[in-house]
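Observation: inputs received (chain + uridine-5'-diphosphate).
Thought: call the complex predictor directly.
Action: predict_structure
Action Input:
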Amino acid sequence: MRPARPLISIVAPCYNEAESVDLFVETIFSILSGKDFEVELVFVEDGSTDKTREKLSALADRHSEIRLVVFSRNFGKEAALTAGLDYAAGDAVIVMDVDLQDPPELILTFIEKWREGFEVVYGMREDRASDTAAKRITANGFYRLFNKISGVRIPQNTGDYRLIDRRVVDTIKSLPERSRFMKGLFAWVGYKSTGVLYVRPERAAGETKFSFWRLWNFAVDGFVSFSTVPLRVWSYVGAAVALLSVIYASMIILQTIVSGVDVPGYASLLVFVLFFGSVQLISVGVLGEYISRLFVEAKQRPIYIVDEIYAQDAKDGAVRPARETAAAE
Ligand code: UDP
Ligand code: MG
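Observation:
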C-alpha cells in the first residue's frame, strides 16, 4: 500500500540553466501544491558556469521544499541524476529536466499510476517531432541496436523522465558501478513498470547541452556498459575471415595448378592488407573501450564530489549518502 500522504521528490539536474530554473520552480509549485502529497525538489547543480548556482540557492532560501546539491565541477547529467537519487528522501522520486521539456502536468498521471501499484512509470514520447531528422535516425538506431545486443530492453522513445518508487531508488543506489548510464540502469533493475505517452515540447529557454560528440560518447557508454557483444563479436569476425581466406587460398592454388604461375595482384594484396589492418585496429579499439572502463572502475573514485548542500530542513539533511561518506573518509 502507498502512504496516504506520500512525499514526492522531484530530482532535476541543472547545468547552465539560469534562464530556466525560476520558471521551472514556479510551474512545479503551481501544478503540485495543494494536492494530497508533499513535494520536495532536489536540484543538482552540475558545475554551471553561469548564474544557475546563485539562482538556485536564492530559491532554496525562499522555499523550504527545495534542497540543492552543488557539485564541485561539471560531472555530467548521469552523475547529477545519481546524486539526485542519493539525496532524495521521497516515497517516490521523479526525475526530470529543468528546461520544461518534460511536461510537469504528467507528474499527476505518474503519481496516479504509482498509486495503482506500478513501481516505475516512465514518460514515452509520442513522436520526436521536436528533434532534428539526424537525431531521430541516430536515436532510433541506437535503441534498436542496444535492445538487440544488451539483453536489457529500454523502451523506444523514453528519456530519463520517470517516477520511481523508493524500493527501486534504493536498488539503483546499491549498484556500485561508476559508469552511470542511467537509462540502462533504470531498465536493468526491472520492477513493475508502465509507460505514459506525452508530446515533448521545445526547450522553454536556453539550449541543449548535448552536442553530437557528447551524444556519441553517451551511446558508446551505453553499449559498453550493458553488452559484451562488441567485445565477443571479433572472434566470429575472425573465424569468418579465416574461412574466407582458406577458400581464397584454395582458389589461388587451383588456378596456379590449372593455368600456371601468375603474378598479378599488387592491388588486391594492398587492399587485403589495409582491410585487415583496419579490422584489427577496430577490434583493438573496442578492447580499449572495455579496458578503459575497467580502469575507471578499478580507481574507485567517487561518481561526483559535492561542494555544498543547501537545505532548510534538518529533518534528514544530516543523512549523507554512503558513497560520498566513504569517499570523504
Ligand atoms: N544537464 C546536466 N549536466 C550536463 C548536461 C545537462 O545536469 O552536463 C542537465 C540539463 O541542465 C537539463 C538536462 O540535463 O536539465 C537535460 O539536458 P538538455 O535539455 O540539454 O538535453 P536534451 O533535452 O537536449 O536532450
Ligand atoms: Mg532538454
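Thought: report the result.
Final Answer: The two ends are 38 Å apart (CA to CA). Residues 13-15, 17, 46, 74, 76-77, 80, 97-99, 101, 208-210 surround uridine-5'-diphosphate (ligand 1) (CB under 6 Å).
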